[in-house]
Structure formats: structure tokens, C-alpha cells
User: Fold these one by one.
Assistant:
Number 1:
Amino acid sequence: MENISFQGTIPTSFEESIELIENGLKKQGFGIVSRIDMHATLKEKLDVEIKKYTILGACNAPYAYQVLLSDLLAGLLLPCNVTVEELSDKETRISFIRPSLMLSIGEIGKNEKISAIAAEIEKKLSIVTTDIFT
């Protein structure tokens, strides 16, 4: 089975990691369209504690537009999620969804144009991960 994500750890604080991710994504034409602070949300809703964990929704608008023109149901699978998990004060795990796998679900996966776009997006995300993890 194919890995669902590109994943790695970096020797930076949680906050520094988010900044690195945002800057790396911006260089590849992505913006952050959503940010879910799971630590704060679960504390507020359930009064439980978890380590710092945030889900970032990354979007490259031109690619998203092309995907949606091909099949509006693909919107169910957008944006590209990136998770940021604090392992310690100076170590963070980062995971980027693999668009080629995410956009291969069901009928959407049979659309050759969407598959080609997903491959392009994945190349850009792999550049971001290479820059961050090396």
C-alpha cells in the first residue's frame, strides 16, 4: 500500500515549523486557506489535553480551479492537508498529504486530467518537503 503522506521530523519548535511550512508552500504557489488548532479545539469542546497539533489546509488556487473545472465533486478532497505535530520543544513532525493518492478516489480517480494535475501538485509539495527536511 502506498504511503498516504510525505512525512518527516525537523529540529525546530512547533511555531517555527509552521512558519517554515507556510514559507515553503508560498514559494511553490500555495496559500493556507484553513488552520485547525486541534489542541485548542479539543480542549474547548471536550476539556481534554493533547500535544500541539495543527492541520493546515494548503491551496494552490490555479490548480484547485483546474480540478474543479474537471469535476466539482473533487472539492470534497480539497485542500491539501498538512499536519504539524509537536514531538518536543525542539522537534516537530510534519506530514503532507499525497495528492496523487487523495485524488485517486472513486470516479474522480478515473479522470485523467485530475490525475495529471495531482501529479503536478505532488511534485510541488515534494519540493517543499525536500527544502524543509534537508
Note: The chain has a mean pLDDT of 96.
Number 2:
Amino acid sequence: MTSFVKRVFVQNFGLKLISLMLAAGLWLVVARSPVVEVVLKVPIEFRNVPDKLEIDSASFTEAQIRVRGPERLVNRLRSTDVSAHVDLSRVVPGTRTFELTSNVNVPNGLDVVQVDPTQFQLSFDYRMTRRVDVRPRVIGSFAPGMRVAQALADPPSVMISGPRSRVEKVEAATTDPVDATGTMERASFVSHAYVPEPLVYVVQPAPVRVTVIMEHSGEEKAAH
């Protein structure tokens, strides 16, 4: 018994005393550090989204997290140190309510005081992919008696994807505005196709070449 006590309390006594003093000093620093709060906005992570489903909501993409802790820790805190997530592995098409409060992670030594929103709803729909035409959008000022006869897109169509109910509403993709000011016969421009419907996107987007072909409108002759 005496040998055991010596090993525990006497052996390397100097090192153990220093460790004890360091621990006590650290505790005093933490205990005396003022407690402060900070509010951070962090993106909500959507984890384990089923392969065949799409999120059919765009309302909730970030959360406001109020964090409390020692000032020295809070001062070093970055928004990337805090995360909020929801697990979507069991969702099916339709609307579902999610609770966010218990799905927030902060560094050790800090506490979550408030989460906004505490709950939110997301809608889900089956993913749909289909091909739609590309409609060039041509703008500009032209010489008197000239007008756009044709605007041809190459490629003439693109694949789009997104929630089925939204994809079904899309009639065509359109290009960014092409300014053909001053074109007399024909000219080609490089643009990009996009879909204005929210949450619907172009699959493998690539530049689109728009060829603008002009013609006489006949108005100039009529004026004579």
C-alpha cells in the first residue's frame, strides 16, 4: 500500500505539481473570461438526398444561430465552425416538417442559445429530365428598313432537370440577351442558355452560338 501511494503521489512529484498548476491556471482563465454572445448566419446542409428526388422549395437555405461562450473562444469563432443540417434519407414526395435545433454543431466550450428557424418545411418531387428548344433573345438597334428574319441557336436544344412539376411547366430555354446592333446581313454571337423557372437547371451547360439573320422589312419601300 505504501509503495502504491508513493508511486501515485511522490514519484515525479515536480511534473505532477506543474501539471496541476497549469490546469488550475487554465481553469482560472476560463472562469474569468467574460461570457459573450454572437449571431452567425450559416447555410443549412441537406444531407442524404435520395437519388430520384429533388427539393421543390427554395425558401430555407440558411439559419441564424446565436452562440454563447467565453469571449476568447467567441472571438476566434468563424461561420465555418458552426454547421446546421437535416437528414433527408427517408423523405418521399410531398411536404415534410424538419426540426433544426438539435442538428446544430458548435465547437467545444460554446453553447447554442437560439436557432432561427427552429422548424421549417420542405417540399419534394421526383426528378425529371427532358429536352427543350433554345430560343435566342435578340436585342439592338437596326438600320431603317431592317429587321431580324431569323435567330438560330446551336445547339438548338438543351437538356433540363429539376422537380417534375416545375420541369413540366418549361416550354423552352432562352439565351442571355444578344445585342445585334448594326447587323446588316448576318452575324454570330456566343451566349448561354438558361431556364427562368426556379430550381430547374440546364444539364451540362455549354456556350450557345446564336446566328442572327437580317432582312428588309419593306417599310422603307412603303414610305416611298
Note: Residues 127-223 form a domain with the RNA Polymerase Alpha Subunit; Chain A, domain 2 fold (CATH 2.170.120.40).
Number 3:
Amino acid sequence: MIRLDKRQKSLWKKRQSLGWEPLHPPVMRGWKRSFVLREDVASSPRAAFFEGILQKINTTQYSHRKDFTVKKRYRRKKIRVEREQRLLSPPTYYMRRLQLTREEWTYFEYKEAWNLKDKRKDRWYEFTEPWRYVLRVEKNMIAQVRIRDEALEAEIDRLGKDIERQCLRPAILKARSKSYWWRRRERGLTHKDKAILKNMEESWQNYKSGERT
């Protein structure tokens, strides 16, 4: 299962490394919405400073509708409401990645609240002056597409179907999370564990034989 997992990851990585090619002409695919500086802020002497903060906490949404609305049920009726969009509220562990300057830190406030669903306390930071930014909707233009390798795509598809057909995904996840377990000697294994190992080895051999053909 570990070898199957590594094989699948190597194929995915190879596909990602193929790169991109330009698309002529560019194609419009829906709309995108993100934050920009408000007009008065953009014309102020501090525009560059707040633009630098925005680049670190900006968010983008995509939609096939220009009004960015979704259907919700209200009193047995379906109505359209606008999707909520906020600036990024980074958790405490993520703040270090933003590489904020000492002055930028002063514009963030520490927050914490109890998460009833996960039964833990969430801690994050919020930007204290979100009024400086407004949402802007623009066309989502696709100017490049991924380079495709048909032989590679066929191999990825064949491996994925083989894993799903033999229901090997749970065994792969178990081997990935507890790889040390699969390296133990059979001496300390139960009959059930030995049967799992035997089935996994047979599945790998079946896959290899199909690969050679």
C-alpha cells in the first residue's frame, strides 16, 4: 500500500510539473470578487502601507453570477442572499507566515472564542480597520491552461480505478498514517493482520502485472 501511495503521488507530482501554456484567445469563466483600497484611502499618503497589508489578508471568491448570490431557504421559500466575504482573519500560528512589520501588527487585534463543534478554543487576529477596503467584481478571465500528457493521464486514471475497484483506499490511508506498523515482522501479528498484509501484497503484484502488460 505504501508503494501504491508513493506511485500515485509521483504521478500527481509529474503532472503538476508539466507547467502551463497560454490560451488564445482568453476565455471568460464567471466572475471573481476581491478587496481593493477605498477611493479616499487610495489617494491618501498611506495608500502604499495599506495596500501592503491588503496583499497579505485579501480574499477572493468566484461565482457564475455577477451578483454573487446563492439560494437559501427562508420560511419554506427559497430566496437569494449575497454571499458573505471578509478579509482574512489568520489564526495565531499563521500570523508568522504573513511577516508583518511592527507597525502593521498594531492594526490587528487578538480574538478568541470557544468552538462548540470541535470543543476547543479558537484563537485568531482580526484587522481593526476593514472599512479601508471595498469589494470589487470583475470578469474571471482564463489566460492559460495546464499542459496535458495523455499517456500520463491514462496512467493516473488506471491506477485510481484499480485502487477504487479493489477498495484499497482505507488500507492506503492506514499504511500512510501508521507506516511503522506495516514494517513489523509477522511474528507479532494477528491472523486478521496477516490476511490484510497478504491481500495487500497480492493487490500490488496484480497492479504490477497489469502495468507490464
Note: Strands lie at 20-37, 60-63, 69-74, 77-82, 108-115, 120-127, 133-146.
Number 4:
Amino acid sequence: MNRRLAYAQLLRIPNVFTAITDVSIGLIATSALISVWPWIIISSACLYCSGMAWNDYFDRHIDAQERPDRPIPSGRISPNLARGIAVGLSIVGVASAMIVSTIVAPSSPLPGIISIVLLAMILAYDARLKATPFGPLAMGGCRFLNVCLGFSLSALGSLAIVPAAIVGTYVVGITFVAREEVGRSRKPVLMFGLTLIAAALLGAILVPTLGLAKGRSLAVILISLLAARLVVLSEAALREPSPRYVQSLVRSAILGLIVLDSALATSLVGPLGLLLLVLLIPAQLLGRWVYST
């Protein structure tokens, strides 16, 4: 049991559902063939989990000081094993997208190209950019590319820019909020991150529909519920910017990606986008067992 928990913590298993809903926006909005779905979802999920494993591998010396209970510094997973897991997941993630580009839908090279660029961005963030001023932008770029991966098989690919930019901006905001979560966060940094999150949520309300006004109304309801939840947690974090309150805000904001993705899909295609909310259930349940940040 302890071993399984260590793997789940290394890969941030509750969060993988947010990567799946990212790509599902495009899969739903562009009516991608069902035969394509598993490969794109596997690619997205594996690349996300590889990023989490790479993160802990590159941060193992910092975690030994700040978070000694994590899988690598605690000795439950060796650095070599973590690196091997990261490499394996990276290969599977890119290979799954390449299968789409070469076998399932050979006329479209974009899935394979995007997966390679996404992996490069993940590695750049984890190995070099995380602690720099460019870190939040790189993290947002990863999510931007992940959303684009879901749109990569359709002529509607240009439609991906708006939802991808919204999700990317939202994640840049989360990254700023989480930047100092280990200690006492600075309020200006929190405020900047929260402003970006608010801008992303506002943008989600303004996403153009594909002729389905009902989708807009449902999307506004979802965004309003998410915003209300985050406002309550943000007030607590700004009042007392300690790890307890900031990390609670970050966890909710990360899982809130599922709600945001569902709202964006609903804006585009109507009630069908609400199906993505189902993934909140396993994400929430696993979140009680495994940390998200």
C-alpha cells in the first residue's frame, strides 16, 4: 500500500484528470472519431504524469530540505527509478500521438508534432525554467499545448486558440499563486496570480458558441460556481498567506480546471460538455488520498 501511494504521489494521480479534460475540449468540439480518443487521451495523460515525475526528479535536492516526505527524498522511490518512470511515460506519451499521426489519421501530422513540442516544454520547465521568472509562462504553455492537442485532428484547429489561451492563462495564475506555497506567500504575488485566474474565468464566459446559446448559459453557471469557490478560498489565503490556506486554494484551483474545461466545452457544443464534470468524482476521491501540489 505504501509503495502504491508513493507512485501515486510521484505522478500526482488526482491531477491527471485535468489533463484529460484539457484535450477533451477539442475532441468533443471537433467531433473527433472515437478511434482517436484513446490515443490522444493516453498521450495527454502520460505526458502530464511524466512531467510530474520529471519535476520530482529534478527537484529532489530541494525537496530533501523543504518536503522530505515526498517519494524520492523519503527513500520510497529511488532517483533512478523516478527518472526511468519519467522517461517511459514520455516515450508512451509521444508514441501514442505519433500513432494517431501515422496510423489512425495519417493525413494529420499535428498530434505527433504537438506532443513533441509539449514534451520539450515540460522538460524545459522542470529542468531549467521552474525557478525563473519564465516558469509560470512555461507551465501555462504546457497547458496551452495540451488543449491544442485535442483540437489537432480537425479543420477547426484555429478554434483551439481561444480555449487554449484561457486554460493557459488560468494555469499561469495558479503557478504564481503556488510559487511560494511552501512558506509564507507574499500578497502581491498572490494578487497577481489571482488576477490572472479571474481574467481567465471572465474570458471563459465570453467564448463564442457554435450556434448553441444554451451552452453559453450553462457555461456561465459553471464558471460562476467555480469563481465563488475560489473567492472564498482566496479571501482566506490573502488574510493568512500561510501554506495551509494557500495550498488549499491551489488544490481547489487545480481541480477547478475540470470545471473550467467543462464550461469551455459546453460553450462550444452545449450540454454534451457537461460530461467532463464526471471526472471530478475520481479526482476528488483520489485527492483525499494523494496530494495535488
Note: Residues 240 and 246 are 8 Å apart (CA to CA).
